[in-house]
Amino acid sequence: GVAAVLLLLGYIGTRRLVVRRVDAEVPGLPQEFDGLRIVQLSDLHVGPHTNRRFLERVVNAARSLQPDIIAVTGDLVDDRAEDVAVYARTLGALDAPLGVFMIPGNHDVYAGWEEVERSLREARIGTVLVNDVELVHRGSATLALVGTGDPAGGARGTSRAAPDVDGALARVP
């Protein structure tokens, strides 16, 4: 009985969309980036059982926030590289003036990161940042966005998905 209740609560929780607004003050941030809006999406776990109406709600909520940048911070898919096609169909319509950026999470790694990454890049639905940096510009100001791998990728150097924060930061001009 307890297991059934926990499963039911977990299932209900997967249909819950949480939007939190956070104001952050960043010392030294160039004036051009004052008021920058970043929408962060995380742990979507798109898979065969993901409710499509829920994903539509995610897209609509993200759009309504009028982001300058969208950051998808891991667990895009839920254990199968084939699910990138569903992810691309449902969330590929998201866009933001300064870009959409994705990093891997453990489920993306477990799904076979090499194939997941290749599929994401082929879908052209944003920029995949794995231990890399992307520079975004507003006026004469530049902001460096740094993406890392995930600890599920193993120790640094063991796989492309392994986190290498030092290497990524070293690429920041």
Question: Which short descriptors sum up this protein?
Answer:
four-stranded parallel sheet, alpha/beta, 173 residues, two-stranded antiparallel sheet
**Count of individual helical segments:** 6
Count of individual beta strands: 6
Order of helices and strands: HEHEHEHHEEEH
Q: Which spans have pLDDT < 50 for at least 5 consecutive residues? A: none
Terminal CA distance: 57 Å
Q: What portion of residues belong to β-strands?
A: 15-25%
- Averaged pLDDT: 90
User: In terms of structural class, how would the helical and strand content be classed?
Assistant: alpha/beta
| Percent helix range | 25-40%
Rg: 17 Å
Q: State the oligomer.
A: single chain
- Tell me, briefly, the overall form: globular
Mind summarizing the main beta sheet? Answer: 4 strands, parallel
Strand order of the largest sheet: 1-2-3-4
Question: Care to describe what's here?
Answer:
It is a single chain. The chain has 173 residues and is an alpha/beta fold. The protein is built from 6 helices and 6 strands. The chain has helices at residues 2-13, 52-64, 84-91, 106-110, 113-123, 165-170; strands spanning 38-41, 69-73, 100-103, 127-128, 132-138, 141-147. A 4-stranded parallel sheet has the order 1-2-3-4, with helices on one face. Strands 5-6 form a two-stranded antiparallel ribbon. β2 (69-73), α3 and β3 form a beta-alpha-beta unit. The protein starts with a helix and ends with a helix. 26% of the residues are buried. The mean pLDDT is 90.
